[in-house]
Amino acid sequence: MTNAATTVDTLCINTLRTLAMDAVQKANSGHPGTPMGLAPVGYTLWSRFLRYHPEHPDWPNRDRFVLSVGHASMLLYSLLHLAGVVEIDAKGKRTGQPAISLDDIQQFRQADSKTPGHPEYRMTTGVETTTGPLGQGCANSVGMAMAERWLAERYNRDGQVLFDYNVYTLCGDGDMMEGVSSEAASMAGHLKLDNLCWIYDNNTISIEGHTELAFSEDVIKRFQAYGWHTLHVTDANDLHALSTALATFQANTGAPTLIVVDSVIGYGSPHKHNTAAAHGEPLGDEEIRLTKAAYGWPQDSSFLVPDEARTVLRDALHARAEPLLQQWNQTLADLDPLLADELQRMRAGEMPTQWQAELPDFAADAKGVASRACGGEVLNAFARHIPWLLGGSADLSPSTKTNLTFDGAGRFSADDYSGRNLHFGIREHAMGAIANGMALSYLRPYTSTFLVFSDYMKPPIRLAAIMELPVVFVFTHDSIGVGEDGPTHQPIEQLTQLRATPGLLTLRPGDANETRELWKVALAQTHRPSCLVLSRQPLPTLDRTQYAAASGAARGAYVLAAAQEPQVILIGTGSEVSLVVAAYERLTKEGIAAQVVSMPSWELFEEQDQAYRDSVLPPTLKARVVVEQAGPLGWDRYVGQTGDKVVMNSFGASAPLAKLQEKFGFTVEHVVSQARQQIERANR
Q1: What is the CATH class of 365-540?
Q2: Is residue 277 predicted with pLDDT exceeding 60?
């Protein structure tokens, strides 16, 4: 195909534009301007460069197309429709139905449609990641590019290539302004990811008006400073220039590529910088008629897909991808059976058969060990048997203890993409989003930082839950146990925030053996992320001949120490479980019957049947005390309106741990006192 725009090219581009206009108009909601302006870019990429098989949209070596400008979702839906992409169901089977039909486009932004306002992963075949919050797609794409590099190092053998895909990301002014994109771009440049191409729609319009209101930097110079190749296309409608830029990216080595494309939002509209198009509103019937007239399009048509345009994208993609897919399948068939089994399990979300083969068992120890330390030991035990488990920290692995230390683990770098220790630098936000991108590429990533810095990771954690990605987010330094670092580093409200996120497992183990069991729970997930919340300070390792087995942690809460006729229930989580146990032992010596409950996960506990939950927290026993070095919000559901909460109601203080525990009431004496008061109240 030549690089000059043909009549058919123009017809296809205008089909993309008019579908966007019509869908937004019918929905009376959405953003028509960006899909109209970017239609030539999307068409050129898909028709001439993208390696993607419409009948096999889950082909592992497909190029990834990420629409970071998620508000331009109609561009993606229209591309998927014209490409004839086949639907893949939740079980990974082809249904024979189109991923996006014309009826689906007509149901844009309607209930239960496959064309929601922003692209949603798992909801619509062909959507590689959920985008909407600006910058997230950009950072996801870095994770996808990193995953390709790791997969290529492990599975390309003897000149046979299984992984060499590229990642293309459409981004806009909003992405450029969001800090997460800067973090991710900096890391991509550092890692020299030359399989990554961001296409920046430089239309100079944001919701408040022209970007000059708040944005005047030279983006090209910024990306050059990051170590990226940069290209500039001055007219988004110049298919020759677009093709030249994309071909240049494919030939570039040693760095990712940014292609800046100057476009006019709502291109073709008689009022070019159309206010409605820029602000996420329908154009209106009259404006649409005038715009279609400018395209030479039937003015009274609606959702028109001309016959000449219907198969152009599909045929181009199929012709390019079919021989590559056949070769890929043959290469896979010739692959070492052990490696082939790994790939099959990765794609299916399964674990190796021996993934729990060498887990440590921790002996009783009054002095104990920090759950961050034993957590690192457990992580390494799992990682030895799960080759695609990899991750790292935001420059804190010496503190979070999440380094993989066994022979061959290696360090992922621009010089060696086979390593499994990732160094994210002090980029918590991008770290989470990059991990999501890696999970979207079949790997099992984990991240780590201090619990208080989960604040910097809220967006990617939320999106991991929305997308049902089994990322493991490790958070250490889980309480005022941080001590002298003071309120800025002492997490208070973060546990509440994590627990409030639907579809997220929050796991806070109370000792080393609970840590092992909860790492097991996290890695067994296939459709939800987990947060492991671990301590800085040593926690006594409980004597499991005296107390219940740690396997109970997998049910979210369990009776750690029972009494035949308990007078009070003491509930502890994480680093406070040992304090509750000490209070229980004091009460027992005083002849007071207490039942101790370790509750490492609200979410797991709520999944148990009512009979089990009632056995742990008997409904008739109202005398209850919960102990947790975090905020009080939510604990009423477990201790009731009359129960006591030994919790934090401030941001802590800078002091040695022992002084802080005394200051805020986390002492055996105080917990025992609260337990006595509860019993007295219940007996009135």
Answers
A1: alpha beta
A2: no
